[in-house]
Amino acid sequence: MKAFGDDDTIFEDIDVLNPNEQTYQPTDLPERADELDQIHSSLRPATMGSTPLNVLVYGQSGQGKTVSIMLKTTQLQEYADEVDMDLTVVDVPCKGVDNSYHALTHLYKELREKQLGPGEELPSGYQKKALLNMVLEELESIGGTIIIVLDEIDAIGDDDYILYELPRSNPEGVRLSIIGITNDLQFRENLDGDVRSSLGEDEVKFDPYDANQLRNILARRAEGALRDTHFRDGVRDYEHLESDVVSDDALPLAAALGAQDTGDAREAIRLFFRAARFADDNGELEITEHHVRDARDFLEQKAIESGIQTLPQQKMMALMSTAWHVSKGEQSTATTPIYTQYKKMCEVEDVTPLSNRRFRDRLNDLSDSNILTKTQGRGRGKQNRYGLAVDVETVVENLPQKNERHGEVAELLRKQVEKHR
Ligand SMILES: Nc1ncnc2c1ncn2[C@@H]1O[C@H](COP(=O)(O)OP(=O)(O)OP(=O)(O)O)[C@@H](O)[C@H]1O
């Protein structure tokens, strides 16, 4: 068994490569200079004794939206402390909330904790209007300039009460600014006109990073995290990176793979971090292209596994009915026999089956998520055929257990796979 402390390591400060926002926040975001300037301009009125503007920040996942807002609000807070300005920044992560009421309860809790310290409960049992008034009272009791950051605000769905009311609320003695952040572009499009014009007084758009920008981002994170890794001539970009522990092709490959999908910095960092850990855990002193490829396979497999584990009921049944045919040795199966199998499984689970047409939509969704393969039927009346895009073993290993929901059918499928192994 390995003993802690004995291992040789390529890491100097492993946290810098950790993609988790709580573990490490970069303070240098040259790729977002324009966006940071726009945010600066929206917040600057606070330094003149006026009200900072409301801002709607939008762009796909992993584009540095949260980290940019954190950077600018922290910078403003530092300035406020220096000049004795009364400023409070309240962060409300909305991930997991499902409506405005729920978001307001979290805001209320955060406002209370700003004044009383951690440990406050989420309020419950109040009418929406009463809860809003409680929030306004807390804002008035804090006073001064208050910036509320609502991250992942799309979680409230089409219930936009909080976004309508807060910017209009005018609490006494408070200069209030709301910053809403979303990676759901449709959410922004669908916002009610009034909400959009008040919340989106200013709008800041984050376009996806390209491979070149991802290389520079990875280079800076690698320089902070890894041993014997430095920038030449003090220029902090990929071209000036020199490292004894990263091979020439590893970092550009991670950036290229990251750019392939959506230019998501979190994904690129996660990939390079995993590659670095693979190398380090094996006691190897160089991160190579092989580690990056292994990391990609590993993360893809993980994503598929958690995708299967969290499938909603009908998609889970659609997957199991397709897997049933595959387990009997069929590469792919036409829609009708899969649908017949699905109806049998619904009977076992006491689930109302979908119509044939809606069932086919589920099969197509699974093929869009790369869990099923789809071969288009040719000619009149020819049906599409579906198979598994992943091992049947991966499917059965990630299905519910016997005593869980759908566990009975899952168990039958596991036995069938066992039988034909
Ligand atoms: N320009 C950059 N330089 C260094 N690290 C970056 C940069 N942009 C993003 N990151 C890192 O990528 C990760 C994701 O960033 P962030 O959470 O700000 O993205 P986001 O746009 O808010 O994504 P989401 O919409 O998914 O919440 C974080 O670990 C962050 O530190």
From TrEMBL:
InterPro entries found in the cross-reference section: AAA_22, Cdc6_C, Cdc6_lid, ORC1/CDC6, Orc1/Cdc6_arc, P-loop_NTPase, WH-like_DNA-bd_sf, WH_DNA-bd_sf
GO biological process: DNA replication
Source species, domain of life: Archaea
Domain Cdc6 C-terminal intervals: 319-399
Residues spanning the signal sequence: none
Any one GO molecular function term: ATP binding
Keywords of this entry: ATP-binding, DNA replication, Nucleotide-binding
SUPFAM superfamilies for this protein: P-loop containing nucleoside triphosphate hydrolases, Winged helix' DNA-binding domain
Binding site for ATP: 209, 221
HAMAP family (UniProt xref): ORC1_type_DNA_replic_protein
Similarity comment text for this entry: Belongs to the CDC6/cdc18 family.
Described purpose of this protein according to its UniProt entry: Involved in regulation of DNA replication.
Protein name according to UniProt: ORC1-type DNA replication protein
Upper lineage: Archaea, Methanobacteriati, Methanobacteriota, Stenosarchaea group, Halobacteria
